[in-house]
Amino acid sequence: MRLLVTLAGVLLAASPAFAGDDWMPPVRDATVLKECGACHMAFQPGFLPARSWTRMMGSLADHFGEDASLPDDKIEIIRAYLTANGGDVVNRGRAAKYMQWVAPGGTPQRITENPDFLRKHRFPESVWTDPKVVTRSNCAACHSGAERGYYE
Amino acid sequence: MIRRLMLVAAVAALPFVALAGDARRDAILADYAAKARAADKGFAAFSAQRGETLFRTKWTGGDSRTTSCTACHTANPRQPGQNAKTGRAIDPVAVSVNPKRFTDPATVEKQFTRDCRSVLGRDCTPLEKGDYITFMAGQ
Predict the structure, then answer these.
(1) How far is CA B103 from CA A141, B2, B24, in A?
(2) What's chain A's average pLDDT?
């Protein structure tokens, strides 16, 4: 029994390696999933370097034009998780690809402006204005596995 | 054996969870009622009808993408909605289909603040909040 559990654990831990370059480690923190995920998908922190998340968590009152203010204790939990799992920390697979385009010391805020994103999203305007899509950051409109980190 | 025990525990917890849900919503409503009374001594009770009007009115003063609560929660609160700003799906807000609604005071307050500013361009009053929950509790 114990052996089975261990085996399953090893398989689980290994699975990302088989998941290909599109895989991004998914968010596993309950507070991040709840608070970030209330308005939009809780984007995987691997898409931005840790310092970008630090900047974002310090400016929630003007979050892309929205007031996304949260109590300090929640901000602290979210900041700690996002910075511990930033793209420069993960630094492999898709995260490493995104990080290639980030200027040293740069703190980009929009994942959808990364050249690696742009390269794969050259669509006619009609795709972006589809009522199911609404915004470029609505990953799940087309990528059904987005929340789990799969972007096939 | 363990499985059976867990099942028993789960079944035993079921009615408790349902009850606790109602009690928490009642507490939230009682808090808004106290604040509504403090603002207006003539306050008698919340009204589902006023709540529905708040929900359906097209307001001016907020974000042009969200002139009404229905912009995201749709005209039928028993249906899933879609966030008009981000495109993300929103679970139904009617309590009959989503009993978890209006049971966590921090979430309720946070969301009223965000959504009322977005739609009305101002905070909702305790009276409006109580009316809104009363309307949704009957939906």
Answers:
(1) 29, 31, 5
(2) 90
ipTM over cut 0.90: no
Nearest residue of chain A to residue B107 (CA atoms): A35
Classified as helix, coil or strand, B10 is helix
Residue B14 belongs to domain spanning:
2-137
For the domain that residue B119 is a member of, what is the CATH number?
Answer: 1.10.760.10
Residue A23's pLDDT band (cuts 50, 70, 90): confident
Domain count, chain B: 1
- Minimal Cα–Cα distance from B110 to chain A, Å? 8
In angstroms, the CA B60 to CA B121 distance is: 8
Enumerate the residues of chain B whose CB falls inside 8 A of the CB of residue A68: 114
- What's the gap in Å between the CA of A66 and the closest CA on chain B? 9
pTM of the model: 0.86
